[in-house]
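Reading a protein record of the kind used here takes little practice once its layout is understood. The fold follows as a row of integers, each naming the local backbone shape at the matching residue. With these conventions in mind, the following record can be read line by line:

_____
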Amino acid sequence: MIPKEKNPDYLNAFLDYSITILNKSPNSVKEYNYDLANFLKFMMIRFKLTNKTVYDEIDITSFTINDLKKITLDDIHAYVSHLAVDNRSKATTRARKISTIRIFFKYLTQKANLLEINPAQNLETPKLEKRMPKYLSLEDSKKLLSVASHEDNRNAKRDFAITTLFLNCGMRLSELVGININDIDFDECKLTVIGKGNKERTVYLNRACMKAIYDYLSSRPPQNLVKKDSKNSDKALFLSEQKQRISNRTVQAIINKELKAAGLDSKNLSVHKLRHTAATLMYQYGEVDIRALQELLGHQSISTTEIYTHVSNDQVRNAVESNPLANL
């Protein structure tokens, strides 16, 4: 829950705008609130509007529109510097917070008309290093699936279905946890998921996914034993041992346990790395068009998808060996 009583009215109005107009997810809006509340607390200290130095003790409800008008680009730079030096925030974290600040001031100037000048108009994002996504090889993926289906696990069919969907479909953790049985079109072998920004998209299911889902449904608790609650557990595909919709944390624990059992690096691999794995395997082995991969993964920008177009050393070697001048 967002503590709206601790926010000034203009911040709450921005959060409402983010949900209703920008169509941001509740988690994104919660992050907006956290980032902007800390930003305003820093400004209260910088402008000497409080004697408090502990952020949890600072009341931002007294930070008025007139105070907002005093904020300059230099003040915002000071905040970003504070994040980098005092908080030791990574460039990716600072970039996310800068994006939030830009959206916030754009709203205040262009939508709410509370400010005439946008101090964040020329605010730049720190340069980010392009890192190759970590992912499992084909052999490691097969090893993980083998571990997931181990008969000693009483939830083997459920856990195998979860792992199979991650590795074949590249869906996000929240998307998998949110699947309802009626989201699945068994005749057309596809399902509907709700991705980032509450955007709905279709995920197609191959034979491995369909078989895993059917096998799991045969062992899923009877419907009359499933709890009816605020999470719509009675509609959920994947259930916990408490007969409720499975949680993000439980799924993360399942994958982490499987990674360890498979002898894989559970410290540097995670649920999200399985999404990277699915995308990479499809691109490397399936000759998937990048636009199709973008649609499948639910990326808004093609640049996000392009990180999966990296190629293995073997592919580079084969490219060199295939040069018609190689045998001269």
Remarks:
- Residues 5 and 306 are 42 Å apart (CA to CA).
- The longest strand covers residues 190-194.
- The chain has two domains: 4-111, 138-312.
